[in-house]
């Protein structure tokens, strides 16, 4: 049984010395950014990939994104237990090395199938950065302080996916699509060197756990049988599904429906700024208001956005300005939920932070990929499939949170696993 008030303003002594707090946040953000960078910088290159490999079906090109997320989701399942046994540093650095090698493989890929293999390996590598980053934060902080650190990190790393499509478009103007993977490889190498030189080990030898199958399964059982952890993971996965669907179809939506052409990365960046603003807002107010007040309010806002978009799309009344405004509000709401859902899910799992973080990441990512892929493959030249999927995802997430919180939103209370 777990008896914990996860919204209490707890804090633990940081163990990231010799780094100061500011550098710690930036390093965490930089390694977390490897994943969204590898996702969003590809968006302008998708038509060029289709031409290079003679792929006429634009929906098939979405696999360049979905296979990356598949590797990312599956690998997280093992990263946590390994980091709980061998420490954070070796797993983090090993994953980043795999990412760099995979980026090189993508540069020289002679076929679409080999490119997909490289993307799968990139996803495997970034799984380590995602799991270990959250785990390191949990090693050093707890409660609202943890949510604040995650929000500050999100403010830094969210700048990468905001500018990534525009940066990718600039790269495409100077070179071919392979140049994008050169950029990803160079960024990965720099992040690897910085982490190797400055990031300390945050898991004491005395706190390391066995990776015997029985012990790992016990840790997984402790994670998935905790009402708070599992509930927030399922809700986050559903919401990520709607976000992934937006990313998968964004290039087609902006170029085919709204005819923005090469300007679509600017529209994408303007929408994605909503997440950055949310990160700043959450970091500023989470200590005062608490994780539940902010994230539950954002969830209700997400439901309202989904319902409005579905109503407008059903009546054929979704011009570009309205779509941009609703999408920005969607991103803003998601940003307010992102750090807080993660912190609420992880709060009861301090004793098995690595394993819990990996299972949380696997559940949310694979659920998100499955939902996002299904919605994306139903793209038919209109916004109705996306709007329908978005609204259903939000309703499902709200239902799950209501069950977890026993019908009581906004207020913290004792949770029992």
TrEMBL record:
TM spans (from-to): 21-39, 59-79, 91-110, 116-137, 149-167, 179-197, 230-248, 260-281, 293-314, 320-346, 358-376, 382-404
Domain Major facilitator superfamily (MFS) profile span(s) in chain numbering: 24-408
Primary localization: membrane
GO MF entries: xenobiotic transmembrane transporter activity
UniProt KW keywords: Cell inner membrane, Cell membrane, Membrane, Transmembrane, Transmembrane helix, Transport
Membrane topology: Multi-pass membrane protein
GO biological process, one term: xenobiotic detoxification by transmembrane export across the plasma membrane
Keyword Cell division attached: no
InterPro entries in the cross-refs: Efflux_drug-R_Bcr/CmlA, MFS, MFS_dom, MFS_trans_sf, Sugar_transporter_CS
Listed SUPFAM superfamilies: MFS general substrate transporter
Domain of life of the source: Bacteria
Subcellular location: Cell inner membrane; Cell membrane
GO-annotated cellular components: plasma membrane
Family, similarity comment: Belongs to the major facilitator superfamily. Bcr/CmlA family.
Protein's name according to its UniProt entry: Bcr/CflA family efflux transporter
Organism: Tardiphaga robiniae
């Amino acid at each position: 049984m777990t008896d914990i008030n996860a919204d209490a303003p707890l804090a633990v002594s940081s163990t990231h010395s010799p780094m100061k707090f500011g550098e710690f946040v930036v390093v965490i953000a930089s390694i977390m950014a490897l994943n969204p960078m590898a996702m969003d910088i590809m968006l302008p290159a998708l038509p060029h990939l289709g031409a290079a490999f003679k792929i006429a079906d634009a929906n098939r090109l979405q696999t360049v994104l979905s296979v990356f997320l598949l590797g990312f989701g599956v690998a997280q399942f093992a990263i946590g237990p390994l980091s709980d046994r061998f420490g954070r540093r070796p797993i983090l650095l090993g994953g980043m090395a795999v990412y760099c090698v995979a980026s090189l493989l993508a540069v020289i890929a002679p076929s679409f199938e080999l490119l997909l293999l490289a993307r799968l390996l990139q996803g495997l590598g970034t799984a380590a950065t995602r799991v270990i980053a959250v785990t390191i934060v949990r090693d050093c902080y707890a409660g609202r302080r943890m949510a604040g650190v995650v929000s500050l990190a999100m403010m830094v790393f969210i700048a990468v996916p905001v500018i990534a499509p525009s940066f990718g478009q600039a790269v495409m103007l100077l070179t071919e699509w392979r140049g994008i993977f050169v950029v990803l490889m160079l960024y990965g190498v720099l992040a690897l060197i910085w982490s190797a030189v400055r990031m300390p080990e945050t898991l004491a030898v005395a706190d390391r756990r066995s990776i015997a199958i029985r012990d790992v399964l016990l840790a997984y059982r402790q994670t998935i049988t905790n009402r708070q952890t599992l509930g927030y993971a399922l809700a986050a996965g559903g919401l990520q599904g709607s976000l992934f669907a937006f990313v998968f179809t964004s290039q087609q939506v902006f170029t085919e429906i709204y005819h923005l052409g090469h300007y679509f990365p600017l529209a994408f960046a303007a929408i994605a700024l909503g997440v950055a603003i949310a990160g700043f807002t959450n970091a500023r107010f989470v200590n005062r208001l608490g994780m539940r007040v902010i994230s539950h309010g954002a969830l209700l806002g997400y439901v309202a956005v989904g319902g409005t978009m579905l109503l407008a799309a059903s009546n054929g009344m979704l011009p570009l300005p309205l779509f941009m405004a609703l999408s920005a509000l969607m991103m803003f709401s998601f940003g307010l939920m992102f750090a807080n859902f993660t912190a609420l899910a992880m709060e009861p799992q301090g004793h098995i932070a690595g394993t819990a973080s990996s299972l949380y990441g696997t559940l949310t990512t694979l659920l998100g990929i499955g939902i996002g892929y299904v919605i994306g493959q139903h793209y038919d030249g209109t916004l109705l499939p996306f709007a329908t999927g978005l609204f259903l995802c939000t309703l499902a997430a709200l239902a799950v949170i209501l069950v977890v919180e026993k019908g009581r939103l906004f207020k913290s209370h004792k949770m029992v696993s």
